């Protein structure tokens, strides 16, 4: 009987964890201005290191939340002040294993460090508009997002 109780408690804990992940995603999405966004957390192995998540535009910040995380806050925050788009590209064959084929990879340069993000083509327009809408004096003509190279 104790084995069945243990299995039941384990299943209950698993269901509660899944419900918590789902509710976290709903709360983030309900705040508005969200897009599905992948962030490359590691560049050690070519084509690897991508993590799925939701990003939310909040004023001058793009807050990225990992999908499979219990942490309520964002994992990464990109400020559009000092952010510029370096280039965009299609996913490599190795990256197509984790990213949808219609997504675009954008390499951004920020004050902190370079970062690669992946998003749907239709979300890219909104992202580039958001970066372009930086306050006057925050971006120079050389760093504006519409002046990127395609590879």
Brief rundown of the structure:
This is DUF2550 domain-containing protein. The chain contains two helices and eight strands. It is an alpha+beta fold and 151 residues long.
Structural write-up:
The protein is α+β, with helices and mostly antiparallel strands and 151 residues long. 27% of the residues lie in helices and 32% in strands. It has two helices and eight strands; from the N terminus they run H-E-E-E-E-E-E-E-H-E. The protein has an eight-stranded mixed beta sheet with strand order 4-3-2-1-7-6-5-8. Mean pLDDT is 80; it is low at 140-151.
Note the main sheet.
8 strands, mixed
Shape: globular
Q: Indicate the mean pLDDT.
A: 80
Tell me what portion of residues adopts beta-strand conformation: 25-35%
Q: What is the rounded Rg?
A: 18 Å
The helical percent reads 25-40%
Structural class given helices, strands, pairing? Answer: alpha+beta
Q: Could you state the order of secondary-structure elements as H and E?
A: HEEEEEEEHE
Poorly predicted parts: 140-151
Number of helices: 2
In the sheet with the most strands, the strands line up as 4-3-2-1-7-6-5-8
**Through-space gap between termini:** 62 Å
How many strands in all? 8
Attribute tags:
8-stranded mixed sheet, 32% strand, DUF2550 domain-containing protein, single chain, globular, alpha+beta, transmembrane helix, transmembrane, 151 residues, 27% helix
């Amino acid at each position: 009987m104790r084995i069945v109780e243990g299995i039941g408690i384990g299943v209950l804990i698993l269901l509660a964890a899944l419900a918590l992940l789902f509710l976290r995603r709903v709360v983030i999405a309900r705040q508005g201005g969200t897009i599905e966004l992948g962030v490359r957390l590691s560049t050690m192995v070519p084509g690897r290191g991508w993590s799925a998540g939701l990003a939310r535009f909040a004023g001058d910040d793009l807050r990225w939340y990992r999908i499979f995380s219990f942490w309520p806050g964002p994992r990464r925050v990109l400020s559009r002040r000092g952010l510029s788009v370096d280039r965009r590209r299609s996913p490599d064959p190795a990256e197509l294993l984790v990213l949808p084929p219609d997504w675009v990879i954008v390499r951004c340069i920020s004050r902190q460090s370079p970062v690669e993000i992946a998003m749907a083509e239709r979300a890219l327009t909104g992202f580039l508009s958001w970066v372009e809408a930086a306050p006057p004096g925050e971006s120079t003509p050389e760093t504006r997002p519409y002046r990127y190279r395609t590879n």
